[in-house]
Fold these 2 entries.
Entry 1:
Amino acid sequence: MNHRFHDRDWVENYAETITTRRPERVEAFAHIVKQVQALESDSPTVIELAAGPGLLASALLDGVDGLQYVGVDYSPAMVHFAENKMADYKARCQFLCVDLRKENWAEGLPTQVDAIVSNMALHDLDELKFVEAVYQKSAELLKPGGLFLNAELVVKPESEEDVDGGKAKVGWHLEVLNGLGFEKIECPLDFGHYACIQGHCGKG
Ligand SMILES: C[S@@+](CC[C@H](N)C(=O)[O-])C[C@H]1O[C@@H](n2cnc3c(N)ncnc32)[C@H](O)[C@@H]1O
C-alpha cells in the first residue's frame, strides 16, 4: 500500500501542486475532454479509475454538458477531498472507495457506460497484471463503441527495460487493448514519459 495517498496533508498538497509540477497534464486533460465531447451521447456516463482529488473530474464536468461522472479511488482521503471539491456538482457526480487490485472492483458500478478514463494512476497498481485485469473489466463495463482512455505514465521508448513496476511502454498498452477486441486503438498524444492510450470498445 502506498501510504502517502492516505495522508490528508499529502493529498491537499498533491491537489494544489501537481498541475504546476506536471504542466503537460493541461494538454492531456483538454484532449480527454475533447474525446468525451466527441461521443454520440448527450449525457454520457463516464467512470474515472483512480480519480484522486477530482482534478480531471472538474475538467470533465465543466467541459461536457450533461455528463454523469463516477470516480473511484481506494484512498478515503482522496475520495473525501474530491467530494468536497466537487460539492457544487453533486447531482452529476459521485466518488466511491474502490480498490482496483481487487477482483470484484467493478461490482456496483454502472454498466454500458460511454467512457472509462484514467490519468497518471494505473501504474500505482504496481504490477502490470493488475493493469491488464482493469483493462479487461473496463471492456465489460463499456457499451459498444464506448471510449477507453488511459493517460498514463509510461516507460520511455529509449529505455532498455520494457517494464518498471506498474509502468510499461506504450506498445504494451496498445497490445492489451488489441487483444481485448478494442477498435480504433491509438496513442494520439505522447510526451515520452506520459501518453494517452485509447480505443473504442469493439463488442456488440
Ligand atoms: C498519482 S495519483 C493520480 C490521481 C489522479 N488520477 C490525478 O491524475 O490527479 C494515483 C491515484 O491512484 C490511487 N490508487 C492507487 N492504488 C489504487 C488502487 N489499488 N485502487 C484504486 N485507486 C488506487 C491513489 O489513491 C491516487 O489517488
Entry 2:
Amino acid sequence: MSRWLLSLLEVNNLRVVYANGHEALKSVSLQAEAGEIVAIIGRSGAGKSTLLRCIDGLQKPTEGSIVLDGETITTLSEGQLRRTRRKIGFIWQEYNLVDRLPALTNVLTGRLGYSGDFASLLGYFGRSHREIALRNLERVNLYDKALQRADRLSGGEKQRVSIARAISQEPTILLADEPVASLDPELAAQVMSDLARVAREDQVLTLINIHHVELAREFADRIIGIAKGEVIYDGPPSGLSETVLDRVYRFDRAPRAA
Ligand SMILES: Nc1ncnc2c1ncn2[C@@H]1O[C@H](COP(=O)(O)OP(=O)(O)OP(=O)(O)O)[C@@H](O)[C@H]1O
Ligand SMILES: [Mg+2]
C-alpha cells in the first residue's frame, strides 16, 4: 500500500517507560490493514501486553503515537477514548465474563456501545441486538449454550463466548492477549481456529499476543516478533526461520551444542 495513504492501524515510534524507569517498548513502529491476522510473539516481558494496552488506550506511551482508523488515540481525552473504545474489541486470557450471567447476556454486553443502557438491550428494543448476539454464539458453535451461566461453561466455551462478545461489538480492531494460554493444546488450537475464522469472515484487523509459535504460524497471516521492547521480525510465517526465532527468544532457548 502506498505510504501516502494511512493504514487502518499506524503505530509510530512507540516508546513506553514505566514509572519505575523500566523501558518496556523502545521505538516500535508498525502498520496493519483491515482483515489482517497478526500474531505477536516474544518471550515473557518482551513488551507484548504493553503494546496491546497502548492500542487499547489503557496505557499512555512516553513517546510516539497510535492512529486507528484516522484517529490519533494516544492523545484522546478520557471521554473521547470511551467512545473510541467501542471500536476496539478485547479478548483476555482469563475471559472476563460475568460469571452469574448467561452466555447470551455476556455476549450482549458487547452491544452496549450501540445501545443506551443495559435495560434497553434486554427489553423490547433489544431484539436486533439479541439476534446479533445469538448469531455470533452460533458462529462459535455455542448456540445451544446461550442460556447457560458463564461459570458453568468449560474454559474453551468461555473463551468462545468472549470471542462472540468481542465480535458482536463489530469492532474495527480486535486485540487478544494470550487468548489460549489457559487452555490445553487441543482446545487452544480449536479456539484459535474459531477466532481466526470469525475475524477473517468479518475482515477485522486482529492482533493476537501468543506464546505458541506453532499456533501463530498456523493461524496468522503475519508474525511480529518482539524482543526487549523492539520489533525483531515482521513478516509472513514462512519467514520465521530458526535464526529469526533464536533472535526473538534469544534468552529463553537452550544453548545449542557447539
Ligand atoms: N506497570 C508496570 N510497571 C513497571 N514495569 C512494568 C509494568 N507493566 C509491565 N512492566 C514490565 O514491562 C515489561 C514488559 O511487560 P509486558 O507485560 O508488556 O510483557 P509481555 O511481553 O506481555 O510478557 P508476558 O509474555 O509475560 O505476558 C516487563 O519487564 C514487565 O515487568
Ligand atoms: Mg503479556
